[in-house]
Design a protein that fits this description.
The complex is a heterodimer of chains A (139) and B (247). Chain A is mainly β and 139 residues long. Chain A has 3 helices and 6 strands. In chain A, a hairpin with a 5-residue loop joins strand 5 and strand 6. Chain B has a single domain, classed as Calycin beta-barrel core domain (Lipocalin), CATH 2.40.128.20. The chains are: A mainly beta (139), B alpha+beta (247). At the A-B interface, helix 2 and helix 3 of A face loops of B.
Chain lengths: 139, 247
């Protein structure tokens, strides 16, 4: 599928060297492409605070105005909980910007590295450097 | 009469010594046992290691593959990772995981309760050896341990060949033999080292050492199957029928 702005495929060198999400359950490389960095802006439609990964879904509009629903994979709820996030920290209707990596299979699935609310608060994701309450960068 | 009294007194003293002697021995034995128990570090509590998805990063160099081992690693299919299928990850990878584990000590047994997949290990410290038939213990293997001062030394065999050593895809054969050392540093820190000995896959044993830190948390629920969605996205083009199995 062709995705244009506001879906921005990023090719910033620094992004490629950013920490990949911490997954206990599967190899990142078996599912996601660390070279396919992506930034998604949209509105949360559903949150699944469940093991082995917390998921949320978001509607993203492409240039033609067509709305595409994306599945965003995050760290496990336990890991997010210990970083201070709760199941209602992100709710349907929230506007979010997601930095992540696309699934290799070409579906509208991404692994989140950074999830940011419009007020700048960084939520979920579970990456070691996502700026959450327990994240290394804020200690 | 006097002789009878002296005889009675001698009998009483002898009886006293006879009664006290074993008590004294018991006392000494208890003291010795208490001292031995006191010497064993108290590892009871929740611990976590730094997440180590790639052993070569912890080692600082490549693993010492045999020709067979390097061939296996070059052709690894990441979708085959047993962890992707919610299968047990094995004794060492459980500790390398990004989740805490709880250690419970009792006489003759140390249990490690992993949050990761809510699995556990039993390490027998009562002096027993490994069973002759190791087949029933596949995946986590059979673990025996002994205390050496401030260190618990654990010997594990019978893991089988279907777990992986890490998420990066380093595998092992059914000849894998683990020697772990849980060494006390202080009340909140431990040094864990694991020596992987697998002559079929690696031409010499190698040892990875990680710090373990006490955690101010409790073990939470983690069910890999609760809302599993990854398998549908994995690159399964060359996937094996039995994930992780050594060919």
């Amino acid at each position: 599928m062709r995705l244009k702005s506001p879906v921005i495929l990023t090719a910033v060198a620094g992004f490629l060297f950013a920490a990949l999400p911490v997954f206990a359950h599967h190899s990142f490389a078996a599912e996601y492409d660390s070279k396919a960095g992506i930034t998604l802006k949209g509105v949360v439609t559903k949150v699944e605070w469940l093991n082995p990964h917390a998921y949320f879904y978001m509607d993203v509009k492409d240039d033609s105005g067509k709305v595409v629903n994306w599945a965003i994979e995050n760290g496990p709820p336990n890991m997010l909980y210990r970083q201070g996030w709760r199941k209602d920290s992100l709710k349907p209707g929230d506007a979010v910007t997601v930095d992540g990596f696309r699934a290799k299979d070409g579906t509208t699935t991404a692994s989140a590295r950074l999830v940011q609310l419009p007020d700048g608060r960084k939520v979920f994701s579970g990456s070691a450097d996502d700026g959450g309450p327990g994240a290394k960068t804020t200690r | 009469m006097k002789n009878q009294f002296v005889g009675f007194m001698l009998f009483a003293v002898a009886l006293g010594i006879w009664c006290l002697a074993p008590m004294s021995a018991v006392g000494q034995s208890l003291t010795a046992k208490t001292a031995a128990t006191a010497a064993i570090p108290d590892f009871t509590g929740v611990w976590q290691a730094p997440y180590t998805p790639d052993l070569t990063k912890a080692l600082g160099h490549e693993l010492p593959y045999t020709p067979y081992g390097i061939e296996r690693f070059k052709n690894v299919i990441h979708a085959d990772d047993p962890a992707s299928y919610c299968l047990p990850v094995g004794p060492a990878r459980g500790i390398q995981a990004p989740m805490p584990f709880q250690i419970v000590q009792s006489p003759g047994l140390v249990a490690i309760l992993f949050e990761y997949q809510r699995t556990y290990r039993l390490i027998y410290t009562d002096g027993r050896g490994h069973p002759d038939d190791l087949d029933p213990f596949r995946w986590f293997g059979d673990s025996t341990g002994k205390w050496e001062g401030d260190t618990l030394v654990v010997d594990t065999v019978g893991i089988g060949d279907r777990t992986w050593l890490d998420t990066a895809g380093h595998q092992h054969s059914d000849q894998l033999h683990l020697t772990e050392r849980f060494q006390k540093v202080d009340a909140s820190n431990m040094k864990w080292s694991v020596t992987f000995n697998d002559p079929k896959m690696y031409k010499e044993p190698f040892t990875v050492t990680l710090p373990l830190k006490r955690q101010n948390t409790v073990i939470m629920m983690y069910s890999c199957e609760e809302n599993e969605k990854d398998r549908g996205h994995l690159d399964t083009a060359k996937q094996s029928e039995k994930p992780g199995e050594t060919k």
